[in-house]
Amino acid sequence: MRRAIRKHSFDVAAIVTLLVVSIAVAGYILSHQRFRFPFIQSSPFTLNAEFSTAQAVTPGQGQTVRVAGVQIGDIGAVSLRNGNAVVRMDINQQYKHMIHKNATALLRPRTGLKDMFIEVDPGSSAAPIAKPGFTIPVANTLPDVNVDEILSALDADTRAYLTLLVNGAGQGLTHPGGTELAQVLERFEPTHRDLARVSRALAARGTSLRRLINSLQRLNTALAAKQGQIVSLIDASSTVFRASASEDQNISRAVADLPPTLSQTTSTLVSVQALADQLGPTASSLLPAARALPAANAALEALATPSAPIVQNEIRPFVVAARPLVQNLIPAAANLAAATPNLESVFGVLGHLLNLVGYAPAQGQHGYLWWLAWLSHNTRTLFSIQDANGPYRPLFIQFSCAQIALTTDPGSPFALVGSLLNLTPLRAHCPGLTPAGDTRRAADRRPGQKSGH
After folding, report:
1. CB of 395 within 8 A of CB of 424?
2. What is the bridge-based pairing of β-strands 45-51 and 84-91?
């Protein structure tokens, strides 16, 4: 067997090569024919759509499911349920959260040969997401409508008239004078616009007329119901007119006095015009404040009621007691007012100093604050090391006998320094406390400890 394989190794290699190539070609063809390879590709997300008719729907022929023109799946199968066609849609897993339960589906031809596809509107986000196996009801779907279905809805005479009309329009448009017909129709466009405008005006007029007639009917009904009151009104008007007729002379005198009165009123109004010009905007500006006054009064009343005892029993005695102190503070306040310019200058200089300390010159350069932090860090590092005497650094302080005498003399102004440094014991090492010159005397001490020799 091995000898035969070695003898025909070329033929075996050719067969294996052809087998591999055939498998690759078959895989390529199957992948382009929407074949899903098990264990490699995930299973589709299945939804159903119920149509009144599924004409020209053929599963396995590349008919797709689309949303906004983008393919999201394929048509998987067609079945019949309760007289309606149920189309199974195999949706890709990446779009499984897109379709909601209020989605709609339209069956549309992609070409004139009825190569169908399903156009899906995913629905609004307010509705829940459709689960696997969900069926879009027939109320949310529409099938493709054929021309013969439209014509079958018409009676025989209407179909005949429509046929003649279409044939005549075709002959008119294919005739050499078809361009003239198009131009004539184009010239009718302004007329159509004017007619549409007139129709809209007539429609609005009809609405207004209906409203007017309705209002007149209500008015007449109300007048009929108030007939007695109308009669009383007419009688009262007659009495008023008779009284006016009896006062004819007085009315004439009033009418004669009316022109000078109107003249005086006109001059007064002219004088008041300037005030009115200012009063109008002022009153308009005060309207928001006036509207807010009731709420402010209510809030003020709620505040004043509990505050009245506090003002009467606590604040008023305090003000009476503080009045002498306030009177004494008046001269101090006057002196402080006189010193305020100098204080402003001092604080201005202090502000400039702080700005100088906090100023950072540029990138890579450091200001005084950075160096203060650096000094603090180095100081902390310096004093973080301790010995047997504690975390303090040893210091060497040297005094001459004259300095010791000066700082330890009770009458000396520097006696406080000698007392703080405990220099009194060192007087024993300075015979006679001679004048300065002997610098061999010293005190070696640590901060916080007694001085030593």
Report:
1. no
2. antiparallel
What CA–CA distance (Å, rounded) separates 105 from 133?
A: 15
Q: What backbone torsions phi and psi does residue 274 show, to the nearest 5 degrees? A: -60, -45
Look up residue 444 and give its DSSP letter: E
Q: Does residue 118 contact residue 89 with C-beta atoms inside 8 Å? A: yes
Going 98 to 100 to 103 to 108, the CA torsion angle's sign is positive
**How confident is the model over 207-216, as pLDDT tens digits?**
888 888 988 8
Q: What does 104-122 look like in DSSP terms, one character per residue?
A: EEEEEESSTT--EEEEEE-
Q: Which residues of 33-55 are buried (b: 16+ CB within 10 A; e: fewer)?
A: eeeeeeeeeeebbbbbbbbeebe
In sequence order, what are the residues at sequence separation of 6 or more whose Cβ sits closer than 8 angstroms to the Cβ of residue 369? 357, 358
| Listed residue (442, 450, 448) closest to 383, CA to CA | 448
pTM more than 0.85: no
DSSP three-state, residue 189: helix
Q: In this structure, how many other beta carbons lie within 10 angstroms of the beta carbon of residue 147?
A: 7
Report how far residue 443's alpha carbon sits from residue 172's, in angstroms, rounded to the nearest whole number: 131
Give the type of residue at 273. Q
What DSSP designation does 130 have? P
| Tens digit of each residue's pLDDT (9 = 90 or more) over 55-92 | 888 887 878 899 998 988 888 899 999 989 999 998 98
Q: 10 Å Cβ neighbour count for 136?
A: 26
State the alpha helices, DSSP H only, in 101-177: 147-152, 156-174
For the chain, how long is the longest CA-to-CA vector? 153
Tell me, what DSSP letter sits at residue 311?
Answer: I
